Amino acid sequence: MHRSHRLRKNEEFQKVFQKGKSAANKQFVIYTLENQGQATFRIGISASKKIGNAVTRNKVKRLLKEAIAAIEDRIKPHLDIIVIVRPGVEEMPLASIQGSLMHALKRAKAIKAVEIHNEKRG
């Protein structure tokens, strides 16, 4: 995940929390806020101490960044997104994290619509 795709400042997080919409599944809570002033999406990750110690939290964040990088072409531009990690994610493998994250992002309507091509077969 490129540096330009990250939310960093507390003010940016607070703006998304206060004005954004939320969606959740068992592993993640997703907050989204449309921001037309930017060309790409930005994501912030929050993992509380309920997840574990600093080493565990950072490992979960690294895995989440890797999962996001794998699907970043499917995430809508012009969005600020916050991903809050719920307990239990620290024990999941990367493939499960990626699937659960994709599910949560779909619930939050942060995934682009899939284009279906009707091609004639010859």
From TrEMBL:
PROSITE patterns hit by this protein: RIBONUCLEASE_P
tRNA processing keyword on record: yes
UniProt cross-references to InterPro entries, sorted A to Z: Ribosomal_Su5_D2-typ_SF (IPR020568), Ribsml_uS5_D2-typ_fold_subgr (IPR014721), RNase_P (IPR000100), RNase_P_CS (IPR020539)
Alphabetic keyword roster: Endonuclease, Hydrolase, Nuclease, RNA-binding, tRNA processing
Gene Ontology terms: cellular component: ribonuclease P complex
Pfam families xrefs: Ribonuclease_P
Self-association state and partner proteins as the record states: Consists of a catalytic RNA component (M1 or rnpB) and a protein subunit.
Family membership noted in the UniProt record: Belongs to the RnpA family.
PANTHER family cross-referenced by the UniProt entry: RIBONUCLEASE P PROTEIN COMPONENT
Name of the protein described by the UniProt record: Ribonuclease P protein component
Organism expressing this protein natively: Brevibacillus laterosporus LMG 15441
Gene giving rise to this polypeptide: rnpA
